[in-house]
Automatic annotation (TrEMBL):
One of its GO terms (molecular function) is GTPase activity. This is Intraflagellar transport protein 27. InterPro entries: P-loop_NTPase, Small_GTPase. It comes from the Eukaryota. Pfam families: Ras (PF00071). It comes from Clydaea vesicula.
Protein backbone atom coordinates (compact mmCIF):
# COMPACT_ATOMS: atom_id res chain seq x y z
CA UNK A 1 0.00 0.00 0.00
CA UNK A 2 1.36 3.44 -0.89
CA UNK A 3 0.55 6.71 0.78
CA UNK A 4 0.15 9.53 -1.71
CA UNK A 5 0.17 12.96 -0.08
CA UNK A 6 -1.29 11.93 3.25
CA UNK A 7 -2.22 14.91 5.46
CA UNK A 8 -2.38 14.37 9.21
CA UNK A 9 -4.34 17.08 11.02
CA UNK A 10 -3.67 17.87 14.66
CA UNK A 11 -4.82 20.47 17.16
CA UNK A 12 -2.47 22.08 19.68
CA UNK A 13 -4.04 24.20 22.42
CA UNK A 14 -1.85 26.68 24.29
CA UNK A 15 -3.24 27.48 27.74
CA UNK A 16 -1.85 29.55 30.59
CA UNK A 17 -2.23 32.68 32.67
CA UNK A 18 -2.35 36.17 31.17
CA UNK A 19 0.94 37.67 30.10
CA UNK A 20 3.09 34.53 30.26
CA UNK A 21 3.97 34.44 26.54
CA UNK A 22 1.40 32.09 24.95
CA UNK A 23 0.91 34.38 21.96
CA UNK A 24 4.66 34.93 21.58
CA UNK A 25 5.31 31.18 21.43
CA UNK A 26 2.45 30.66 18.97
CA UNK A 27 3.58 33.46 16.67
CA UNK A 28 7.24 32.45 16.70
CA UNK A 29 6.41 28.84 15.86
CA UNK A 30 4.02 29.88 13.11
CA UNK A 31 6.54 32.28 11.52
CA UNK A 32 9.55 29.90 11.66
CA UNK A 33 11.40 31.71 14.42
CA UNK A 34 10.71 35.34 13.58
CA UNK A 35 9.77 37.35 16.67
CA UNK A 36 7.00 39.87 15.97
CA UNK A 37 7.83 43.47 16.81
CA UNK A 38 4.48 44.14 18.47
CA UNK A 39 2.30 41.95 20.61
CA UNK A 40 -1.36 42.54 21.22
CA UNK A 41 -3.25 40.74 23.97
CA UNK A 42 -5.42 37.87 22.77
CA UNK A 43 -9.04 38.87 23.18
CA UNK A 44 -10.63 35.41 22.89
CA UNK A 45 -8.71 33.03 20.63
CA UNK A 46 -6.25 33.14 17.76
CA UNK A 47 -5.82 30.18 15.42
CA UNK A 48 -2.63 29.65 13.46
CA UNK A 49 -2.32 26.93 10.82
CA UNK A 50 1.07 25.53 9.89
CA UNK A 51 1.82 22.84 7.33
CA UNK A 52 4.94 20.77 7.99
CA UNK A 53 6.58 17.89 6.14
CA UNK A 54 7.69 14.68 7.80
CA UNK A 55 11.45 14.53 7.22
CA UNK A 56 11.67 10.79 6.59
CA UNK A 57 8.72 10.66 4.21
CA UNK A 58 7.99 13.45 1.73
CA UNK A 59 4.48 12.09 1.06
CA UNK A 60 3.24 12.76 4.60
CA UNK A 61 2.39 16.27 5.78
CA UNK A 62 1.17 17.47 9.15
CA UNK A 63 -1.32 20.31 9.26
CA UNK A 64 -1.08 21.77 12.76
CA UNK A 65 -3.86 23.98 14.11
CA UNK A 66 -2.46 26.07 16.97
CA UNK A 67 -5.17 27.51 19.23
CA UNK A 68 -3.86 30.42 21.30
CA UNK A 69 -6.54 30.89 23.98
CA UNK A 70 -6.84 34.00 26.12
CA UNK A 71 -5.65 33.57 29.70
CA UNK A 72 -8.31 35.83 31.22
CA UNK A 73 -10.46 34.14 33.86
CA UNK A 74 -13.51 35.37 31.98
CA UNK A 75 -12.88 32.78 29.24
CA UNK A 76 -12.36 29.75 31.51
CA UNK A 77 -15.93 28.60 30.90
CA UNK A 78 -15.12 28.19 27.17
CA UNK A 79 -12.06 25.96 27.68
CA UNK A 80 -13.95 22.62 27.39
CA UNK A 81 -15.00 23.70 23.87
CA UNK A 82 -11.36 23.79 22.77
CA UNK A 83 -10.33 20.49 24.33
CA UNK A 84 -12.98 18.42 22.50
Amino acid sequence: MTLDNLILRNKCIILGNCGVGKSAISQVFHSDGQFPKNYTPTIHEEIYVKMMNIVDNQNINVELFIHDVSGHDLFNEFLPKYVN
